[in-house]
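Example record

One chain of 321 residues, shown exactly as stored in the release files.
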Amino acid sequence: MITGLFHKPWLAMVGVITALVLSSCSDSPPPRSREKPSVVTTSTMITDWTKQVGGDEIKVIGILEPGADPHVYEPVPADSRAMEQADLIFYNGYNLEPELIKLMQGTGISEEKTFAVAEVITPFDYDYDGQRVPDPHVWGDAENAIVMVNAIRDQLIELSPEDEAEFRENAAEYTKQLEELDSWMIQQIQTIPADQRQLVTTHDAFQYYARAYGLDVTGTLIGISTEEQPSAQTVKNLSDAVQNINVPAIFAETTINPALIKTVANEAGVTLAQQELYSDSIGAPNGEANSYLGMLIVNTRTIVQNLEGSYTPFANSINED
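Predicted structure tokens for this chain:
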């Protein structure tokens, strides 16, 4: 009887303690989800590719806004902070964005966390001020874009190995769209009369596009960088050249003031296409060219229609109205 009197209160106390412990465990906050890796991108094309491959597993911070010209962009303090805090920086390279490259080099950012996406492509070289320089506009060829997308995929896998399956799946799906678009563009350009497959633009940004899809870049006001300022003689020379070729239209570009190319068109007596071409940036978020795919679709439609080809819309997940 004496033992029983002491035993029952002891059991009751154990039950109370157990209940308190279980209650405490159930009220504890859930473990925090891991923070997404931060990836800074320069050009709008690279920003789009990185989002396509990274999906929801990374945080992408694009420095250049749609419509901005990477050749002449001047960094702001927020750009430096974003780069310093980033886990990885994707930039074009080949001196497309000279001031941003200087910023990376000047702030002591480790080379291990920077990657020049375009430099996985062997570039076209041109003479500029007596030197051979690479043409940075490699994204004009969709096959080049596939190579760059896969390079982005590999860098993201290295950054976040636990997300490898998603990165590979996203890249494969996007690559399929790029392959379909590449074939479609070849077909579209072939509808232009052979003697009219000639491209005249504001600056020399379409060599990769032209060579991939069967055009000749007959003339431009300026070279591969928009930092150049064409002279009055350059404008006259281009106007004379346009008069001597069988081309129904020439083209302005979205990132460059169209005034001088309008002068060329007027003096040569040819049409200046109403739709400007997207050269160094994708278009505004609410527009048709708000992605890399959309940019190439709009450019191809504009070129084909203005050079008197027979345009057929791109039948894909990105359908035109």
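Notes: The CA atoms of residues 92 and 118 lie 5 Å apart.
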